[in-house]
Design a protein that fits this description.
The complex is a heterodimer. Chain A is an alpha/beta fold. Chain A contains ten helices and ten strands. Chain A has a six-stranded mixed β-sheet with strand order 6-7-8-3-9-10, with helices on both faces. In chain A, a hairpin with a 2-residue loop joins strand 4 and strand 5. In chain A, helix 3 crosses helix 4 and helix 3 packs parallel to helix 5. The mean pLDDT of chain A is 93. Chain B is mainly α. Chain B has one domain. Chain B has a two-stranded antiparallel sheet with strand order 1-2. Classes of the chains: A alpha/beta, B mainly alpha. At the A-B interface, helix 2, helix 3, helix 4 and helix 5 of A face helix 8 and helix 9 of B. The structure holds adenosine-5'-diphosphate and magnesium ion.
Chain lengths: 247, 333
């Protein structure tokens, strides 16, 4: 069953069309990888789904409900969690309080929210940092805090925007494991944007490739990686997508 | 501050119990002086105003420069029914907060669309506009003549205990809010509105809620001011400097975003204000009385430069300094 249906989604910024008639579906329990060169519209797509930007045209259906014109907080309550590529911690609050703030989306009591926060912190390997102020976390911790805050809202669909960027190799492995656990243990559907091909290729069930705001390929990772349009899109950028897939 | 503990509404820590006990006996210690008892009542009033401002500015990040608007509306809610129909101003303790919240609701619709300095200017304008309107509309408000009322008691004590009860109740309410979902939502909005929305927080709704609670508290303070002083006029209760700005100073000196900050700020502020106003309680030369604005200015600059967290917010640092200084002097002796 599809949990998310995107239909002809379009976003103009003045003369620029950042997302151009994009349509796709996400199945429940799936991990969909979203790839594309810098500036191709991946973050904008997330910002449209969670209503950070208003949609120029097109439709977003989540769990059979049209959410195109809901507000950001309503979308979060409907069950879509997201992380920000440029992390947005609640800086002067402790790590635990950050996660509790998210947990209150489904909990009204203090103790209930704290219980959820403790589970989520453990899940994201942040329990040792729980009393630290969020802005004193090292970058790896901040990225995991983004995931933890979103998880605490108990989403059924999670949008992860480059949560492995800037991590060292050990942290990348840890991040991949956490993402896998989110789907396998918590049963949460994931759309993941990632530049590190090792991450996207090992973790995704299916990949959607976009360039200049339009879909250029869609399918199994090994097929998309060899798609001429995808290779063309990445030409001139530093990496060769095929190399990364084989690595 | 972190919110990882939760207290019952009336369950006090040792510090809180001591603080409340001191408040309760303070007027008895000054039973020889109506003047000092009067100051204590004013301190209670400023505690309520400071708490009110702090909830909106310190905890929710919406820095108001117009709290005189809510204070003045509360005061006139108590005064006008008396002026027109001889209805007791005491009802103002109920109607004051209601009218202030209603006004806050419409103000919120206007000012929450503004960001940063524009928000500050919008709130500042609201107080000033009310001051002018209430001064001009003589038929309704009696304009600059103000409104008189023969106060109920000559003794200060009943006023003090009513004001103290209101102040302590306000502190307990704020403490309860901060240790609940509401408080987490206010703090999240202060830290990052976009992140808050993504966490499912209706930032518009919760900013309005913060404003409503804040307006209600300031409205109570205003109504009590009318009841206690027996006289108000627009220049007094809608005053930009003497109400709106001093409210901010109380918050900053005590510690923005702390529960007990406004209480400490109110005591320090009133003490310094009176010290200079009365030329060191009549002991110093007369010209000292003209310095009190200057001393305030200097104090605020010093606090912002060296103690951004205010007295309560930076207390751990201050306590440490005192300790090391004590150790040093003891080592020398
Ligand atoms: N708020 C905005 N205003 C104007 N242009 C924007 C805005 N957000 C994104 N864009 C533009 O939209 C395009 C897609 O950006 P983005 O979605 O961030 O790309 P990606 O995440 O794939 O790197 C870029 O050209 C970017 O400059
Ligand atoms: Mg991006």
């Amino acid at each position: 069953m599809s949990i998310l249906e995107i239909d002809g989604l379009t976003k103009h910024f003045g003369g620029l069309t950042a997302v151009d008639h994009v349509s796709f579906e996400v199945q429940e329990g799936e991990i969909l990888g979203l790839i594309g060169p810098n500036g191709s519209g991946k973050t904008t797509l997330f910002n449209l789904i969670n209503s950070f930007y208003t949609v120029s045209s097109g439709k977003i259906i989540f769990n059979k409900q049209d959410i195109t014109h809901l507000k950001t907080n309503e979308i979060a309550k409907a069950g879509i969690g997201r992380t920000f590529q440029v992390v947005k911690p609640l800086k002067r609050l402790s790590v635990e309080d950050n996660v509790m703030a998210g947990a209150f989306a489904r909990e009204n009591s203090f103790s209930g929210a704290r219980e959820v926060a403790h589970e989520v912190l453990k899940f994201c390997h942040l329990d040792d940092y729980s009393q630290m102020k969020a802005d004193s976390l090292p970058i790896g911790g901040r990225k995991r805090l983004e995931i933890a805050k979103a998880l605490a809202t108990r989403p059924s669909l999670l949008l992860l925007d480059e949560t492995a960027a800037g991590l060292n190799p050990t942290e990348v492995v840890e991040a991949i494991q956490i993402m896998k656990n989110i789907r396998d243990e918590l049963g949460i559907t994931i759309i993941i944007v990632e530049h590190i091909m090792k991450v996207i290729m090992t973790i995704s069930d299916r990949i959607l490739a976009i360039a200049h705001g339009s879909t250029i390929a869609e399918g199994k990772p090994e097929i998309v990686a060899q798609d001429p349009a995808v290779i063309q899109a990445y030409l001139g950028s530093e990496f060769n997508i095929g190399d990364h897939f084989n690595a | 501050m972190t919110n990882n503990t939760q207290n019952g509404f009336f369950k006090l820590t040792k510090f809180e119990f001591t603080a409340i006990a001191i408040i309760m006996i303070s007027p008895l210690l000054f039973s020889w002086s109506m003047y000092f008892q009067g100051l204590l009542i004013i301190v209670m009033l400023w505690i309520i105003l400071g708490l009110s401002w702090n909830l909106m500015a310190g905890y929710t990040g919406q820095v108001s420069f117009g709290h005189a608007a809510f204070f003045g509306i509360g005061a006139y809610a108590a005064a006008l029914p008396y002026f027109h129909w001889r209805i007791s101003p005491w009802w103002g303790l109920i109607t004051g907060p209601i009218v202030a919240v209603a006004f806050g609701y419409f103000l919120g619709k206007l000012v929450f669309k503004l960001k940063g300095p524009y928000f500050a200017l919008g709130t500042l304008a609201s107080g000033e506009i009310l001051r002018i309107i209430f001064g001009e509309e003589e038929l309704i408000t009696n304009g600059h003549n103000g409104i008189f009322y023969m106060t109920t008691w000559t003794s200060k004590l009943p006023y003090f205990y009513i004001a103290a009860a209101l102040a302590i109740f306000s502190i307990l309410i704020i403490r309860k809010i901060i240790q609940s979902k509401l408080g987490f939502y206010f703090l999240s909005i202060r830290e990052d509105q976009d992140a808050a929305e993504a966490l499912g927080i209706d930032t518009v709704k919760y900013k309005n809620l913060s404003l409503a609670i804040s307006a209600a508290m300031a409205g109570v303070a205003g109504a009590f001011y009318m009841i206690y002083m027996g006289f108000i006029d627009p220049e007094v209760v809608f005053a930009l400097h003497n109400i709106s700005i001093i409210t901010i100073l109380v918050g900053i000196i005590g510690g923005v975003g702390t529960i007990w900050g406004p209480a400490v700020g109110a005591i320090v502020m009133i003490f310094i204000q009176e010290l200079f106003r009365s030329s060191l309680f009549g002991l110093g030369p007369e010209w000292l009385s003209r310095l009190h604005s200057l001393v305030f200015g200097a104090l605020v600059v010093l606090i912002i430069l060296y103690m951004a967290g205010g007295i309560v917010g930076d207390w751990p640092i201050i306590a440490n300094k005192i300790k090391s200084w004590k150790n040093k002097t003891e080592g020398q002796s």
